[in-house]
Write a structure and sequence with these properties.
This protein has one domain: Arginase, Chain A (3-Layer(aba) Sandwich). Helices cover about 35% and strands about 15% of the residues. It has 10 helices and 10 strands. The strands form 2 sheets. The chain has an 8-stranded parallel beta sheet, with helices on both faces. The chain has a two-stranded antiparallel ribbon with strand order 2-3. Helix 7 links the parallel strand 6 and strand 7. The chain binds zinc ion (ZN). Zinc ion binds next to loops.
């Protein structure tokens, strides 16, 4: 299995996020991708290659042009407004009910319009890293499209919370959706099975009205877990997409027996869709003790996960999503991918 990785993610480095009423140390730290890279290398999973460059076109198949332009320009515009001492750009007001949601020129207004949380600061290297992550997913998709059984896009920042014109949850461009769209554009029927601890709200939103891309997600019940306003079981798709979105919310503290049952149901849904290709937004923040998580998977559970995914017997692209417990992150990702390869 080839892994696609770019060291340019290191430039997306911020000290803080805002949670629980205070600035806290950032959880999406650059060390995350380095730990996963070391695990991939340590296990001899396969070659590690840098992303090819695909330009803006495949990104604009999924994201709105104004949104992408905003991301590209956000940091210099923030610095122009707030001065050269600033280190992180956060929104501070959002267009809530009764207000007028519109794209206006002020950068702070734009962050509130396009962003949906206070966990996702933009810094000097954010746009470069986000572009590289999207290119990593597209490169990995190209390997799969050319006949390889699997590929791993080691994306950082992650992507599954980003929608067509929405960023948040540490995500800016939806790497998995961009890759899935590139497969769909070549005539393939694509299923996305998101196993991150949090609902892949961005991916769901992007494909919600479509029947050609199935979206399935297993995650913490949004009644208790981020992103709170997306991921309920009654969100099943709209219009032509009705019946092509499937959410499996699970309670906090979920252990493997319950998770494994949900995964079996999700896999059955994917199988019934009869896709040509599978995209797996891979988050391991399901690990017990993850600082952003709430499930209690551990150790060999991730081997079971990888082996079950392999039984679908589909060309499969993995994109790196969450996983914030640094002492177990590399091993958990390595376990999933190695089990998939070995099965
Ligand atoms: Zn997550």
């Amino acid at each position: 299995m080839k892994t696609v990785y770019s060291p340019l993610h290191l430039a997306h480095a911020h000290a803080h996020e805002f949670e629980g009423g205070q600035l806290i140390p950032a959880k999406d730290v650059p060390a995350r991708a380095e730990l996963v890279l070391n695990a991939v290398r340590g296990r001899g999973l396969g070659p590690v290659v840098e992303p090819l460059h695909f330009g803006m076109e495949p990104i604009l198949r999924v994201h709105a042009a104004e949104f992408v332009h905003m991301l590209e320009q956000a940091w210099p515009r923030w610095v122009a407004k707030y001065g050269y001492g600033v280190r992180e750009a956060f929104p501070s007001a959002w267009p809530a009910r009764g207000m007028t949601p519109k794209h206006i020129e002020d950068i702070e207004a734009q962050l509130g319009y396009y962003g949906f949380d206070t966990a996702t600061p933009i810094v000097a290297g954010t746009w470069t890293a986000a572009r590289q992550a999207a290119d990593a997913a597209l490169t990995a998709a190209q390997f799969v499209l050319r006949g390889e059984r699997s590929a791993f896009a080691l994306c950082r920042p992650p992507g599954h919370h980003a929608a067509a014109e929405l960023y948040g949850g540490y995500c800016f461009l939806n790497n998995a959706a961009i890759a899935a769209q590139s497969m769909a554009d070549r005539g393939h029927r694509v299923a996305i099975l998101d196993v991150d601890m949090h609902h892949g709200n961005g991916t769901q939103a992007i494909f919600y009205g479509r029947a050609d891309v199935l979206t399935v997600s297993i995650h913490g019940d949004p009644a208790a877990f981020y992103p709170h306003f997306s991921g309920f079981a009654d969100e099943t798709g709209a219009g032509a997409g009705e019946g092509f979105n499937f959410n499996l919310p699970l309670p906090g503290g979920t252990l493997w027996p319950v998770y494994g049952e949900a995964l079996a149901v999700a896999i059955e849904r994917v199988r019934a869709f009869a896709p040509d290709m599978l995209v797996v937004p891979l988050g391991v923040d399901t690990y017990a003790g993850d600082p952003a998580g709430g499930f209690r998977l551990e150790g060999s559970d991730f081997t079971r996960l990888g082996a079950m995914l392999a039984r679908l017997d589909l060309p499969t692209l993995f994109t790196m999503e969450g996983g914030y417990r640094l002492d177990t992150l590399g091993a958990a990702v390595g376990d999933v991918l190695a089990a998939f390869e070995g099965a």
